[in-house]
């Protein structure tokens, strides 16, 4: 068939261009706060990725002689009470924070999606799963994370797991809500009429139509996870004290806040910039992807 | 199975829904046959139980709220009431195809036409993606979609409503079904497209000799396509019979009413009549004949007891106690007499 050959060519050649020309992508690129958020995130991610290259010295290298140096050309962001270079520590801290945030997001994406999809699709599971998530959500989130982290012993892995436990019920709820909506649509029935089984329908028809709210939710989970990780580390329940973590840096700098305010201000700003970036990104995504927001605006 | 056995034979199909306001019976003791190569029109107002009947046959009603019971639902020599979920799933999309009313929402917006067309093929037959793709292209060509190979890579929003319904028909036909359940396949489309699609269905039917259950609320569609008519009212069968019989000698006041609501192109133009009132609520059904409150021929006897099916000829029967009178005396509602 000659027409068969025709349709092969335009497929893969310009995938990127087609992506950038997509209606939603174009709207995102014109969305101001999304773009600001995107650049902030790219900035922080670049620092995290390039930490070994751009940090002038080992973040844990102590130099007693140059303690409490204010920001200068020698020490870009100053030094702390043990003479460690703050710029290096903030850069490596970005690595830690982003990895923990990413870990929480991945666990959320996997378990939140599985639990939400099952609860939304199978009525029998809905009751049990949602009461469980109610129970988890009844705890103040930071308190729950602190409880789990305290029970498991402080480490970066603990922080990831405890924060995942805190946020998975929220993600699952959001996914459940969209599954409930999508499963009533006619094409789900049509697919069933074509002989498709439950899991096939869930995977192929329902979940791909629930991605927009999930992406938005995950961007917020990312931001909360970074914030909460700082809280846990500040309380000594997150990263090991030797790690360069923003929360630990603030906690250590607290004792010298009068003499050396940059010890708390700089990691605090790092947290603020990252969380702000992710929130702006999430807001932009929601504006473009969530149909309800569009209705309210018009 | 002998030649004369119907491909689908429904006996005593009832469906009830349990909700917050208790249980309502949406389909009450419905029986009809569909022969091989026959088009049976299922007609009635919205809410008369046409769709629920069709969905009940292939087990597509939500299991947690709907309860389907039947003496027998014989399809192709098998009793579907005894079939397991697995068996039913194998029939759906295989030997029984289904077309839905809303072409706009019956296709998944995030999947390409081709993927959705190949879905039933890949579910029911163990063939390669390549072979399924080729079959998809053939099917699209068969339902009259221009440059079918390109359309395989389109998304639903790139097609018009009529094109999408053609795709839905292609999907339903993909595994050469013996029975096609078409649930108001043309209702959501504009009139010219409606006619095209009906022609397409008829053409394919003539070629494949599959049976079609055509659900509609248009007498015009029935007159054009169907061999046999089943008129439903409020979950029950009001009248059924061969299409010529029904149009020549309607044996139920409701069937008459439906015909008088339909304009004719030939003969003297007349004022269209309407049937006063509306379908009774399923949770507050009148006793006796359910059409009685809207029927101007109703007698006292109509309001007590369910009217039996009265035979009016070969395979023609009506659930009206005055059916024989209606047919023989050609009694028309007052004022309509010429």
What this model shows, in words?
Chain A is mainly alpha-helical. In chain A, α4 (32-54) crosses α5 and α5 (86-121) packs parallel to α13 (262-289). Chain A is elongated and about 75 Å long. Chain A is built from 14 helices and no strands. Chain B is an alpha/beta fold and 338 residues long. Chain B folds into two domains: 8-233, P-loop containing nucleotide triphosphate hydrolases (Rossmann fold), CATH 3.40.50; 252-338, no CATH class. Chain B is 31% helix and 22% strand. Chain B contains eleven helices and 13 strands. In chain B, strands 7-8-9-3-10-11-13-12 form an eight-stranded mixed β-sheet, with helices on both faces. In chain B, α4 packs across α6 (161-173) and α6 packs parallel to α7. Chains A and B meet through α1, α9 and α10 of A and α2, α3, α5 and α6 of B.
Summarize the model shown.
Chain A has 298 residues and is an all-alpha fold. Chain A has helices at residues 2-12, 15-21, 23-30, 32-54, 86-121, 123-138, 141-152, 156-182, 186-193, 198-206, 211-234, 246-253, 262-289, 291-297. In chain A, α4 (32-54) packs across α5 (86-121) and α8 (156-182) runs antiparallel to α11.
